[in-house]
Amino acid sequence: MIEAFTPWLEFLVCALLIGYAGQALTKYAAVISEQTGLPASWVGLILLSAATSLPELFTGVSSVTVFDAPDIAFGDALGSCVLNLGLLVALDALSRDESVFCRVDHRHVLTAGFGIILIGLAGLTIMTTRSGIDLTVFHVSAYTPFVILLYIVAIRATFVHERRLAITAPPVDAPEGITLRQAVLRYGAAAAVVGVAGGLLPHFGMQIAEATGWHQSFVGTLLIAVATSLPEFVVIVSALRRNAADMAIAALLGSNLFDVLVLAIDDLAYLKGSIYAHVSAAHAASAFAGVIMSGIFIVALLYRPRNRFFGSISWTSLSLLSIYFLSSYFIYLYDF
Hints:
Elements: H1 2-36, H2 41-52, H3 54-65, H4 70-94, H5 108-130, E1 136-137, E2 140-141, H6 144-164, H7 180-212, H8 216-228, H9 230-241, H10 245-269, H11 283-303, E3 308-309, E4 313-314, H12 315-335
Antiparallel strand pairs: 1-2, 3-4
């Protein structure tokens, strides 16, 4: 009986370690930004999004190289994209005075638009590959170089756009009394903790799948995606405490861009062929859910909804929540 709960306990320990180390990553990323003079607008989009997406990176690479579990890698990355957009609901609920979509800047439309392109491309690649159109160069999908190029274009376009509009993001609340060298070393230590914990998640996820009879795509999309998204949740809570909703949303949207880049890295690391040809078609549901949710976010950002249900969340949040649960339920039905 105890052995049945052991994988769950080990999974929980890894999740807690990721959450704790994720908080440290964001703190020392802020110090590095302040000490190096990097633009504050890039803290959310580059430093924080990359820092909070390290669990997906380590989990994905270990899934395809050590445990031969590409479904867990894919489920984690795309599941995290959908969950990140679902966290907008938490942002809205925590925003007491008015809907968070009325408070943030329009500039996030650009990042969300690139997110639609990248996540949609991942979903389209899954569908075309599963249909027999498997374009590969050596063992890598022909789409992977486009994903990497699009990520670089997205980051550069966002930076140029903000500089052109002279947008200044809220400053990051960096702790004082820490040197750049100390921040880099502590950032590296936190990244190492995330690496070890994230690298072990696929192993425990596979044990849970075997014990419960659940499919790896379902475990990756829900359980592991939730665990690796803990740093994003830490970021949005701390950002709202400082009244910095723009930084929180930039981090969430930037994490989505980075998570799709993780898929490209997973494809490069998977030596048995294109990773898209070895994963469940159910992952396309997560990708298209991410596209729809990004579209809802863009509409809300332009429409600025002011009505709130139960005095806490807007119709946008209800729509995002509905799409999240519908996609999760579809994956459950598809796998079972």
